[in-house]
Amino acid sequence: MFSKFTSILQHAVEALAPSLPLQEDFVYHWKAITHYYIETSDDKAPVTDTNIPSHLEQMLDVLTQEESERESGETGPCMEYLLHHKILETLYTLGKADCPPGMKQQVLSFYTKLLGRIRQPLLPHINVHRPVQKLIRLCGEVLAAPTENEEIQFLCTVCAKLKQDPYLVNFFLENKAKRGDDKDADVESLKEEMSSPDTGQQVHASADQDGPTANTSSPAHVGGASVLPGNSSSNYNLVSSLLNLTKSPDGRIVVKACEGLMLLASLPEDAAAQSLTESTALCELLTRRLTSFYQALPQSMDPLDIDTVESVNWGLDVYNLKEDAAAFTGKRALISFLSWLDYCDQLIKEAQKTAASVLARAVRDHFFVPVMEPQLMQTSEVGILTSTALLNRIIRQVTSEALLQETLYFLLGEEVGPETPTSVGHSPLRHRLIGHCDHLSDEISVTTLRLFEQLLQKPCQHVLQNLVLRNLEERSYTEWCPHKESLLYFLSSCLTSDLEEDPLFSDLSPDTRLSSPDWLNCSPPQSTEHSKHDGKTEVHKIVNSFLCLVPDEAKSSYQVEGTGYDTYLRDAHRQETVVGRWNWPGSAKPIEKCDLDKPFFEGHFLKVLFDRMGRILDQPYDVNLQVTSVLSRLALLPHPHLHEYLLDPYINLAPGCRSLFSVIVRVVGDLMLRIHRVPDFNPKLLLVRKRLLGLEPEVVDHVTLLEGVIVLEEFCKELAAIAFVKPHPPSHALEARVSGRVTRGTS
Questions:
Q1: According to the UniProt record, where is the region Disordered (predicted)?
Q2: Using an 8 Å Cβ cutoff, are 583 and 740 in contact?
């Protein structure tokens, strides 16, 4: 109580006394602090019961006023006094000893305000960055310490200063081998300061003798130890202290520490980036927390819950279970995992390029491979479903280029050479995931197909090259012919000789063979000029080929308003693209330069999709929608070989090869046989379409077949719209990015 009264009395005296010159005022307050330690024997009283906080604040005010009265960049006598007399070194020693109790908080606050308020660069001065470095080492030593708030404020202020002048980070990289103990120097400095009768009048002479650079140091030397670029044995104490504070039980401290780490990771200095990844535990922090959050998730979760949970930015994952009406088991854990994943993604996105690559590779090596891969490779259907849905959400959320690349390499491998039937198992995880697209469980198939659809939306050429394009480079799916056969002949041959040889249609009798089906008459007649001079088939013929592929007796969209072909045209025109910068060729590789003798293998991915497409009449509606969704997304891509293989009905397929069009032709042939086996086929087809649109609740038999017919009709219209739009984009934007698929009229 007496100390507080004394403090109030002193403030009153100072307010009434005439103002001193700034330097004398500054020296007065500093001497008042040093005299306290000389005259006071009670070191147990808290610092708040003394005048020390007031004197420190007055010193800051004097320094701020002095800078405001001088030209920018000019150092005044008060600042010269602070630097010359190593006041920051002395304060560090007092703060380290925490004498009187609470002094550490006062010192941290003084450092923070000094660096934050003074505009001129202070860190280049050796008598500033050296004590700052020492004070950094004190931060984060004790978890939940009473000084945590001041510690994080101080560290973040230093990070902000380094962000403004990145080269200064070299002052904070210490060589482990040469770093010494400064305790003796600290004690001697304190003793000298306490007993010195200096009034501050010698500062100018000292400054004149030493020159303007007397109190500065080169970034190449920190604390007497040289820091060479590429020195992996350097201490990065600023990062280490922030990492310690990320373990704090106070969430606000953790968020601020993460912000500081992100600032440091973004610094462009190569030496700092190397120290960040090689000499600190940052990689371990990222992967260890990803692992712990992932392992805290329930073993079984609904894929719909995983897909629809709201996006949470890191640091903002505030969740109240009582206020959540859409709560489900594991939601809190899922939000925590996604929040930390978002932080990892943003950190890698902002990080210096070399550091970003190392951090992303660490996530792959220490999280994806040891933690997620066993979950994806397991045989439990529940486990497969949950882990695949989580992987889909991870891919959807990742935006940083480095982390996305490592994620894709983890899933698909790094191979870009052509596949062979015997090489599909070289990447076990890729092989397993593609196989899950044709799993016995329809739910697993749909979830995995959604995963691949998500992959196709990512702006990474490796996805398309690895899954599809590497198998189409030589165009060995074609057979060289000087004159292309007409579509009518192609369809007729597929529906007669090919179907008769196919085991699927081995039960055809001579009376039921499709010798001249009427539905083929609507196909465009053969034209002697059906190809342009550049080798591209005329667009309207391709469009008509797809529109006329499904026979009239199997069509029902014309009987329901709003499901016409024009709907797909409008949707296709709205598509955006991501592939313009990939420098794909504008035309297919000349046929004479292709190795047509090389056996063609469509690749594991297209094989599974085509197999699924071939069973469209016997699969559930959700599976059919997802299969056609992936195929339509591939068809939208403007690579000439992919366009030819998926959208050109006029290509001459090599023996034993199939294309998307030929697969659909076989499905239509099967449909023509089955139509006659379903009584009242057309009325039932219309009822099913209306039921899918929510217009008719009635349920009929043969639902799977009828739903498959509807999806087939809509898919053919969608392919026709894509074929029409791709050669005639409304603007160059269509050639730049594909971000969404054509919306189905029946979904």
A1: 182-226
A2: no
Question: Is the pLDDT score of 503 beyond 90?
Answer: no
Choose among 333, 241, 325: nearest CA to 296: 333
Would you give the DSSP letter of residue 421? T
pLDDT digits (tens, 9 = 90+) for 326-336: 788 899 999 99
Calpha distance 340→331 (Å, rounded)? 14
Residue in the structure block whose two tokens are 């009153």: 12
Q: The tokens of 508 are what? A: 């055809």
pLDDT digits (tens, 9 = 90+) for 467-477: 999 999 999 99
Rg (CA), the chain: 36
Q: Residue 141 gets which letter from DSSP?
A: S
The DSSP letter of residue 559 is G
Which phi and psi angles does 199 have, rounded to 5°? -105, 0
pLDDT band at 11, cuts 50/70/90?
low
User: In whole angstroms, what is the distance from residue 129 CA to residue 133 CA?
Assistant: 6
Structure tokens, 290: 């990803």
- Cα 724 from Cα 719, distance rounded (Å): 9
The identity of residue 379, as a single letter, is T
Q: Tokens at residue 668, please? A: 């239509």
Tell me if 542 sits within 8 A of 647, measured CB to CB: yes
Please check whether residue 607 is in contact with residue 477, taking contact to mean a CB–CB distance below 8 angstroms: no
End-to-end distance of the chain based on CA atoms, in angstroms? 77
pLDDT at residue 699 tops 70: yes
Q: What is the pLDDT of residues 333-360, one digit of tens each?
A: 999 999 999 999 999 999 999 999 999 9
3-state secondary structure of 221: strand
Per-residue pLDDT tens for 168-223?
999 999 876 555 444 444 444 444 444 444 444 443 433 333 433 444 455 544 44
Do residues 734 and 725 lie in contact, with contact meaning Cβ atoms separated by under 8 Å?
Answer: yes
What pLDDT is attached to residue 559? 76
Flag whether pLDDT at 618 surpasses 50. Answer: yes
* pLDDT tens string 58-111: 999 999 999 998 887 788 999 999 999 999 999 999 999 998 999 999 999 999
**Residue position matching structure tokens 């790094």:** 414
Residue 498, both tokens: 């090919």
What 8-state DSSP symbol labels residue 116?
H
What's the length of the chain? Answer: 747
Largest CA distance in the chain: 121
Chain centre to alpha carbon of residue 138: 34
Quick one: pLDDT band at residue 647, thresholds 50, 70, 90?
Answer: very high
Instruction: Give the C-alpha separation, 291 to 271, whole Å.
Output: 29
Instruction: Identify which of 111, 131, 132, 147 has the alpha carbon closest to the alpha carbon of residue 190.
Output: 131
- 8 A C-beta contact, residue 704 and residue 544: no
What are the phi and psi torsion angles at 531 (to 5°)?
Answer: -120, 140
Q: CA angle, 318 as apex, 314 and 321 as ends, to 5°? A: 135
Q: Residue 73: helix, strand or coil by DSSP?
A: coil
Concatenated DSSP letters of 24-43: HHHHHHHHHHHHHHHH----
Residue (of 125, 32, 115, 109) closest to 67 by Cα position:
115
